[in-house]
Amino acid sequence: MKKILISAFLLTALCGLFAQSLFINEVMAKNETTIADPQGDFCDWVEIYNGGDSDIDMGGLYFADDHYDGTLGSAYMIPTTNSEATTVPAGGYLLFWFDEDTADGETHINTKLGGDSDAVYLLNADNEVIDSFEYEYDAETGLDVDDVSIGRVPDGTNGWSFFGSDYMYMPNPGTTNNLIANNEQSVPDIAAISMTNFPNPFNPETTVSFNVPEEMNASVTVYNIRGQKIATLFNGRAEAGANSVVWNGTDESGKKVSSGIYFYKLTAGNQTQLKKMVMVK
């Protein structure tokens, strides 16, 4: 199983700011197509989130990986030569590229992330851990899979979720991970498509009804609370107007899922709608 260790200590950082405002917020160990660095290369990346009320210049702080031996000699200092490049705005994000190409700029770190297992430590000049993330790959973590990341949801909290094509959401480098508000997607519904399920809550099955404006390709998928896809209810050509499909509460392998909250997503053309349903026992 994956190991996630988060350590935060109260300390004073540059300019009198509190460095516990900085969080390792999202990590991708195998970036193949998600986002390119300014040089056009697809590199491992770590997103830092500033949860404080003031901008923070990270120049002079340190990154280390699983070779960290407890001393700053095994870490890499973020250069202090360009504060514009190394400052995280209040409530904002900054990407660091773990590519060993430090000549490419101040946000490039002299190590790479292993997909199978590794660690990221953020340290201050007193060798105190501001934040850390450690992981070991297994079939559920996904970090050894191309273009899959793991991030805090919501930003800066101890809740973690995976992002990728087999999950509820795609990776979000440089933007918020606060994708669920009031247990539903925090974007407005698109008027051209719609869906609902009944009954809700349900046991043992529920009918998902969805409408599309014209005959088109569509899919209806179900995700668990961690954002992992567990079932595909429909994937094909939907008729214009009303369509429906029944979910009997089983996953892709036919195994009955446990009671709890699930999300179902309609994708039709370039439009998407996400809603919540509850299975009870």
Tell me, rounded to a whole number, the average pLDDT: 85
Treating each run of at least 4 consecutive H or I residues as one helix, how many helices?
A: 1
Return residue spans where pLDDT drops below 50 for at least 5 consecutive residues.
1-19, 180-191
Count all strands and give the number. Answer: 21
Large-scale geometry: elongated
Q: What is the H-and-E element order?
A: EEEEEHEEEEEEEEEEEEEEEE
The helix content, as a percent range, equals under 10%
DSSP strand content: 35-45%
Topology at a glance:
Blueprint: E1 22-28, E2 44-50, E3 56-57, E4 62-64, E5 76-77, H1 83-86, E6 87-88, E7 93-98, E8 108-109, E9 117-123, E10 129-136, E11 149-152, E12 160-163, E13 180-181, E14 184-185, E15 194-198, E16 206-212, E17 216-223, E18 229-238, E19 241-247, E20 260-268, E21 271-279
Parallel strand pairs: 7-8
Antiparallel strand pairs: 1-2, 1-11, 2-7, 3-6, 4-5, 4-9, 9-10, 11-12, 13-14, 15-16, 16-19, 17-18, 17-20, 20-21
